[in-house]
Amino acid sequence: MDEALPFKLAGLSVYLIALLAIGVIASRRMKGAGDYFAAGKNLSFWSVAFSSRATGESGWLLLGLTGMGATFGARAFWIVAGETLGVAIAWLVLSRRFHRLTQRYDSITVPDYLESRFGDKAQLLRRISAIAILVFVIIYVAAQIDATGQAFNHFVGINYYAGAAIGFAVVMVYILAGGFLAVVWSDVFQGILMFVGLIFLPIWGLIEIGGLDVMTAKLTAIDPGLVTLSGPGGWTAETVVAIIGFATIGLGFLGAPQIFVRFLALRDEREIKKGAAVAILWTVLAGSGAVLVGMVGRAIFTIDRGEAVLPDLVALLPAVIIGLYIAVVLSAIMSTVDSLLVLGASAIARDYYQKVRFPATPDAKLLPMSRRITFGLALLGFAAAMLISALQDEPASVFWFVLVGFYGLAATFGPTVILSLFWSGFTAKGAFAAMAAGFASMLFFQFVGPELGDAGPWFERITSLPPAFIVSLLAGYFVSKGEPSPPEETRRMREDLANAGRR
Q: Which of 56, 254, 392, 423 has the fewest beta carbons closer than 10 A?
């Protein structure tokens, strides 16, 4: 019998009870759709910073990035550098303009903002937003549910399918009860757990192994490339392209709706600088901690344990601490699942049903409908995860699985949001072209690009996001230039953007 099992179950129980309590408390403050989707636009910098980072990272930080650290060694720090740059740009360059414009347009979702920004009476932007969000949210949620099943299996020995079902049930209870406010509060709680867990584990590992010098010597004996920024294989053209792919993961934070809805919900723009400091520091320390976990684990186990390196390392800890790490891993997973489900519900209930199909629908009806839609989306994600698991001989890489959904949302929304914040000549047709191009090209570069003969390996190394981002930007630019807005519309946009950019 596993002697640590009682401690594992105790830590897990405390964590799950805390999430349920958050849902109950948040439900008492929810009065309408604005509270369900944007927490009444009254969040502090602390809440937004921790919530945006917890949501932006997901299960791949604890399982995927630690696995990258074990496989590639110090080269994985390029991912941390790219993330830090992306987070810094999102907070310091984009968030203030976005917050001001969403306040001006009284938006409570990103598609709300896009429709108002472009005066899109045909509502094409809402439609393509809803489609993209649904497709990629289901993929993303399926990835997180898959990671939940793996986490329960690794740590507690619970059957993969039973573990996935337990995680699914808990998320459902607190989201359906408290909506976006419960999501944000739970993200703060979970973000703190993730941060502390990723700082403590590599420190413990270094002490256990005998210090940084010993770890470096052991990794050098395995492969000298593990302690260099080029990684195994040295500096080659393929390495440079792979590093660009690692570093450009930061593009995923520039306009992604699951993150930018938090800027929309800030109670005051004066919170931005403080929030930026918290978010950037969190990213640097937690990301670096994840890579170091992988490197320490590789030094201890000598063989590449990949995404199993964190569970294997945690298994060496005292039993009472193992229970806490189960909560840390689940925090990374659930903090993303809940945000995505609320995002998906907003896309269907508000952005399509209320704004496109039945504009007369009152908010009072929207709230119970949103809860039903949230539950339905969660079931689809759960079913997708179970189907994918059943069809595979081995579990998919959490890192790869998550990035399909993450990159899809980023490529569809990122370039459009960026251009909308700075270019008064950006038109509704240009925005639609940019979103459609980002959506389609991301799928092309993800699934077709790697199969394109000699070019395939290069597309695989650079990943699908950078080329899809470029295609989307170019589509938006050239379509807008080819059919500019009427002078009065351009003038209105110039005034709005000037107000958004003032100091």
A: 392
What secondary structure does DSSP assign to 85-121, as a single string? HHHHHIIIIIHHHHHHHHHHHT-SSHHHHHHHHHT-T
273: left (phi over 0), alpha (psi -120 to 50) or beta: alpha
- DSSP letter for each residue of 6-57: HHHHHHHHHHHHHHHHHHHHHHTT--SHHHHHHGGG-B-HHHHHHHHHHHHH
Residues 6 or more apart whose Cβ sits within 8 Å of residue 476: 415, 416, 419, 426, 430, 431, 433, 434, 437
Cα angle: 345, vertex 176, 56; to 5 degrees? 60
Sequence spans of domains, the chain:
5-501
Q: Is the pLDDT of residue 174 over 70?
A: no
Whether the CB-CB separation of 72 and 231 falls below 8 Å is answered with yes
Count of other CB atoms within 10 angstroms of residue 369? 17
Handedness of CA 299, 300, 304, 310 (dihedral sign): negative
Q: Which tens digits make up the pLDDT trace of 352-368?
A: 777 777 777 776 677 67
Which among 430, 494, 437, 496 has a CA at the least distance from the CA of 468?
437
Among candidate residues 413, 411, 403, the one with its CA nearest the CA of residue 139: 403
- pLDDT per residue as tens digits for the range 22-42: 766 766 666 655 555 555 566
Six token digits for residue 412: 């569809």
The DSSP letter of residue 445 is I
pLDDT over threshold 90, residue 404: no
- Please name the residues in contact with 165: beta carbons below 8 A apart, sequence gap of 6 or more: 382
H/E run at residue 261: helix 257-264
Which of helix, strand or coil describes residue 43?
strand
Residue 28, helix vs strand vs coil: coil
Radius of gyration of the chain (CA): 22
pLDDT digits (tens, 9 = 90+) for 74-99: 999 999 999 999 999 999 999 999 99
Distance separating alpha carbons of residues 35 and 14, to the nearest angstrom: 27
CA 497, distance to chain mean position in Å, is 28
Q: What CA–CA distance (Å, rounded) separates 339 from 335?
A: 7
Closest CA to 32 of 390, 361, 392: 361
Yes or no: say if 175 and 55 are a contact pair by the CB < 8 Å rule.
Answer: no
Rounded Cα distance between 49 and 191, Å, is 9
Phi, psi values for residue 31, rounded to 5°: -115, -20
3-class DSSP assignment, residue 58: coil
User: Tokens in use for 187?
Assistant: 């993200």
Mean pLDDT for 447-465 is: 84
Query: What is the DSSP-derived secondary structure letter of residue 266?
Result: B
**The predicted structure's pLDDT at residue 101:** 92
Instruction: Give the fold, CATH level 3, of 5-501.
Output: Sodium/glucose cotransporter (1.20.1730)
CA-based nearest residue to 80, from 222, 338, 240, 253: 253
Q: What is the rounded CA–CA span in Å between residue 95 and residue 258?
A: 13
**How far is Cα 221 from Cα 217, in angstroms, rounded to an integer?**
6
**Average pLDDT along the chain:** 82
